[in-house]
Input
Amino acid sequence: MVNPISSESHRFVSAAPGYWPDVSSTDWADWRWQLKNRVTSLAALEQRLNLNTEERAGVLLAGSKLALAVTPHYFNLIERDNPGCPIRRQVIPRIEEGYDSPFDMADPCGEDSSMPVPGLVHRYPDRVLFLVTDRCASYCRYCTRSRVVSGVGEQELVTDFEEAFRYLEKHTEVRDVLLSGGDALLLSDSKLEGILQRLRGIPHIEFLRIGTRVPIFLPQRITPELCAMLRKYHPLWMSVHVNHPRELTTEVRDALGRLADSGIPLGNQSVLLAGVNDDAAIMRELVHKLLLCRVRPYYLYQCDLIRGSSHLRTPVAKGIEIIESLRGFTSGYAIPQFVIDAPGGGGKVPVNPDYVVYHDAEKIVIRNFEGKIFEYPEWSPQPVSNHHESEFAIAG
Ligand SMILES: *Cc1c(COP(=O)(O)O)cnc(C)c1O
Output
């Protein structure tokens, strides 16, 4: 078993076959094989990785909270002997998942209280989040929706599709529908097409989006057939989820290329995670590699206060520092917006480095990325209204 991924760089590499030396290339390239052969048990994990006690206990715990599942494609990015491996920390449970900090919540973004219809979150005035499945290709240990995702937790995702469509038909203010879950790209082409078709039949819905990690966990799923189907429903945008540059393999780059070639504008949503990407150099490499894949970094999220995720959370200052290290130093297109999804249901709130040093009615004093200070005057022409009035008076 050779894992070719050793040093991080802008190079795109494949880690296949990695831990699956005997697989045929046809099977490997088949997303159904990938799903069927996911690593879901302690035994299957220990066959391949040297686990430590924290991980072993974490796996046993996970069974009743958020299932363990990792596709072979993604699993191959994990270093066999390094519990600190940034890929491993995202998908292999640890004992710390059993610890809830005093601030942890089951539903940190307050979604359940903004559901006018089961499975449809209507938080913002003109757009909705539509939860179309509770399954993902692999499970992120910090999942913000772990209360309903993977099928082993306390709560079950119940989506009433017919009622959701009726709600959307009635609510003419909704112009943007974001399909999420779970992962919408785990639905069959025909099931997904049925949903897109139905939404496209609603005249006030202008803009469709899919939030998905399938291109990263399961790039084989991005088939030419899927792309041909999706392109019939434009304007259709997609947000993917990449946290570490190593996740951008040749297979992932090619899958993203197929989506981009189908005219789908691609954005990325990263979650800031301790020991994964809480580092300016890693984030710089990630955003540059994303641009090479024609993906625009969209959001960088402060990790939600999801139960059992405190070991993965970072100080907010780290996110601000990362944005500050990018702004001005690299392409503006490479810089995501850092946001906190406000606990309790406030929605996404931008959090930015402060470039305003002083501001009053006469001027604003700003600093640039190098720390140099500049002034911009708040000057406007003298009001001319009196002049107009007197002209009017003469004319009248
Ligand atoms: C994130 C989110 C959206 C989409 O937000 P954008 O800022 O437009 O990307 C919509 N609804 C809910 C509930 C969300 O959490």
Remarks:
- The pocket of pyridoxal-5'-phosphate is lined by residues 121, 123-124, 127, 129, 178, 348 (CB under 6 Å).
- The chain has a mean pLDDT of 94.
- Residues 22 and 347 are 47 Å apart (CA to CA).
